[in-house]
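Customer ticket, subject: "Can you confirm the structure for Glyoxalase/bleomycin resistance protein/dioxygenase superfamily protein?"

Message body: Hello, I'm evaluating your service for our small team and ran a test protein. I'd like someone to confirm that this is what the system normally returns, since I don't have a reference to compare against.
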Amino acid sequence: MLTPFHLAVQVRDLAEARAFYGELLGCTEGRSSDTWVDFNLYGHQFVVHLNPALGEGGVASHHNPVDGHGVPVPHFGVVLEMADWERLVDRLNAAGVSFDIEPHVRFQGEPGEQATMFFRDPSGNAIEFKAFRDIQGQLFAT
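Agent reply: Thanks for trying us out. I re-ran your input and got the following:
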């Protein structure tokens, strides 16, 4: 069994983050204060910390080439079971989320073949959700 990770990122507005992570992604909320909120991100402790200085521009990132796409760096996310990934794709599409990299399968026919998608939260944090048909056999395949 994997142990949960803890990740904290900065956001420009807590209400906006609650709507995105809580309502859209379905993360339950844990502890909070007037400057941060804990979320349960698929069993992991994910915390958003208020940084009003971010403003409209949000978090800066650059892109590195991976399998013909410009992957935003930095990014974070969760590896899901394929059925959970597909349900999330449907939820994001229904909500009109704009993708940096549309949901697709990369490394087709190669070790590590995976379904992946990239999008951003309202503060500009890049998020990747991916899935494998066989997580244990494919996650670290070379």
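A couple of notes from the result: The chain has a mean pLDDT of 94. The longest helix spans residues 82-94. Feel free to reply with more questions.
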